[in-house]
């Protein structure tokens, strides 16, 4: 187990392209940290720099008490699980598991005991005599995890390990990995994990904390609940949450009523919103999560009026797309609460939960409705 620290870490390629811009991050002992962001945000590059597979061009990487910038990958006390699992095709599972220990010239008895231990933890004992080509995707993924686990590393690195699995298997395997992390902690073998994914569902369900990245910058680091309820900026607000937050340009009139205007329609956030604002009147970006819009009768005060453009039946809920002053909003309604008389093209009215409204500075993108709290 070890603390992992990034201090002003940068990556600039030979052509002058700067992929990582002086990021700082602390991953605590035994913590499960997830890196998430869109393609090209440098999350995998960051992981590869931690692993020593990519050189850094500025800053320091600390593992425990060591600065590991100049250490070879094999000397950093890490184990990495890749997207393609990287199993040796000609070796049976038991030999794949023990390969790292054989390289370290560990005794055969120790390798056999470690193989039995790991195969028991991951429930792959019946697979030990199989070749990789005889494994399903989920089985191969567990073997890859086992090959990392058997080394008893200080830090585990996962680079999109579930992206090649189908949706059902991906869901079960993310539960298995998080269960394994908790089991190791309970066994007195806590593991520090850095896990890269582009899938926000994986991030929100697996991470103790999540590092949201964009274009080589860290946009916010927080636990899943904080990211969802108190996004630090418009990027995080729009990236975290399914469906994504409704974000539209509007105008703020600060004061006791904290009035928000979209097009020709104005609602009041009242004292609830006013108390959270840290900026004055002017153009802003208004954020409302689809789950925080309620249907009300047309003509209700403090509501936005619009027209239904798309109705999506999702099973347990309905996604209604509503045009409000030329802006497309999504409103999520539980299926059992949906009024099936509402059809495409119908006029409707919605009112936001004012305590869940977000206001973002138009230029910086920063959330100015957090009341001065740290995000």
3D architecture notes:
It is a single chain. The protein folds into 2 domains: 4-229, Rossmann fold, CATH 3.40.50; 248-361, Nucleic acid-binding proteins (OB fold (Dihydrolipoamide Acetyltransferase, E2P)), CATH 2.40.50. A hairpin with a 2-residue loop joins strand 12 and strand 13 (265-268). The chain is 25% helix and 33% strand. The mean pLDDT is 92. It has 9 helices and 20 strands. It is α+β, with helices and mostly antiparallel strands and 375 residues long.
Summarize the entry for a quick read.
The protein is an alpha+beta fold and 375 residues long.
Write out key terms for the chains shown.
single chain; 375 residues; alpha+beta; Rossmann fold; OB fold (Dihydrolipoamide Acetyltransferase, E2P); 2 domains; six-stranded mixed sheet; five-stranded antiparallel sheet; 33% strand
Helical proportion, percent range: 10-25%
Q: How much beta, percentage-wise?
A: 25-35%
CATH homology-level superfamily of the largest domain: P-loop containing nucleotide triphosphate hydrolases
* CATH-level-2 architecture of the largest domain: 3-Layer(aba) Sandwich
Element pattern in H and E: EEEHEEEHHHEHEHEEHHEEEHEEEEEEE
Sheet with most strands: strand arrangement: 6-7-8-3-9-10
Number of strands: 20
Structural classification: alpha+beta
Topology:
Elements: E1 4-12, E2 18-27, E3 32-36, H1 43-51, E4 58-63, E5 66-67, E6 78-81, H2 93-103, H3 108-122, H4 137-149, E7 155-159, H5 167-186, E8 192-197, H6 200-206, E9 209-214, E10 217-222, H7 224-229, H8 234-239, E11 246-253, E12 259-262, E13 265-268, H9 270-274, E14 282-288, E15 293-296, E16 304-313, E17 317-324, E18 327-334, E19 347-352, E20 358-361
Parallel strand pairs: 3-8, 3-9, 6-7, 7-8
Antiparallel strand pairs: 1-2, 1-4, 4-5, 9-10, 11-12, 11-14, 12-13, 14-20, 15-19, 16-17, 16-19, 17-18
Helix pairs in contact: 2-3, 2-4
């Amino acid at each position: 187990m070890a603390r992992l620290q990034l201090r002003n870490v940068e990556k600039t390629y030979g052509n002058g392209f700067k992929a990582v811009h002086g990021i700082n991050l602390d991953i605590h002992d035994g913590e499960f940290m997830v890196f998430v962001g869109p393609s090209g945000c440098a999350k995998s590059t960051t992981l590869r720099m931690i692993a020593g597979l990519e050189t850094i061009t500025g800053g320091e990487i600390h593992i425990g008490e060591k600065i590991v910038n100049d250490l070879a990958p094999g000397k950093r006390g890490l184990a990495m699980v890749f997207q393609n699992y990287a199993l040796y095709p000609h070796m049976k599972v038991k030999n794949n598991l023990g390969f790292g220990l054989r390289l370290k010239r560990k005794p055969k008895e120790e390798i056999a005991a470690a193989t039995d231990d790991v195969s028991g933890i991951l429930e792959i004992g019946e697979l030990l005599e199989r070749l990789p080509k005889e494994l399903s995707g989920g089985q191969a993924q567990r073997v890859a995890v086992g090959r990392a686990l058997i080394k008893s590393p200080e830090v585990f690195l996962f680079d999109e390990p579930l992206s090649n699995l189908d949706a059902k298997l991906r869901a079960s395997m993310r539960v298995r990995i998080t269960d394994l992390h908790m089991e190791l902690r309970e066994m007195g073998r806590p593991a520090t994990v850095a896990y890269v994914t582009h899938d926000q569902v994986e991030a929100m369900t697996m991470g103790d904390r999540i590092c949201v990245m964009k274009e080589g910058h860290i946009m916010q680091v927080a636990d899943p609940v904080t990211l969802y309820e108190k996004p630090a900026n418009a990027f995080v607000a729009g990236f975290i949450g399914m469906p994504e937050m409704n974000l539209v340009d509007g105008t703020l009139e600060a004061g006791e009523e904290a009035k928000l205007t979209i097009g020709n329609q104005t609602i009041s956030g009242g004292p609830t919103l006013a108390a959270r604002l840290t900026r004055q009147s002017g153009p802003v970006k208004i954020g409302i999560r689809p789950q925080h819009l309620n249907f009300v009768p047309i003509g209700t005060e403090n509501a936005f009026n619009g027209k239904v453009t798309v109705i999506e039946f999702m099973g347990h809920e309905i996604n209604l797309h509503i045009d409000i002053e030329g802006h497309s909003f999504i409103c999520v309604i539980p299926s059992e609460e949906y009024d099936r008389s509402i059809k495409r093209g119908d006029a409707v009215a919605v009112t936001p939960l004012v305590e869940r409204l977000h206001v973002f500075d138009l230029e910086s993108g920063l959330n100015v409705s957090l009341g001065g709290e740290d995000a």
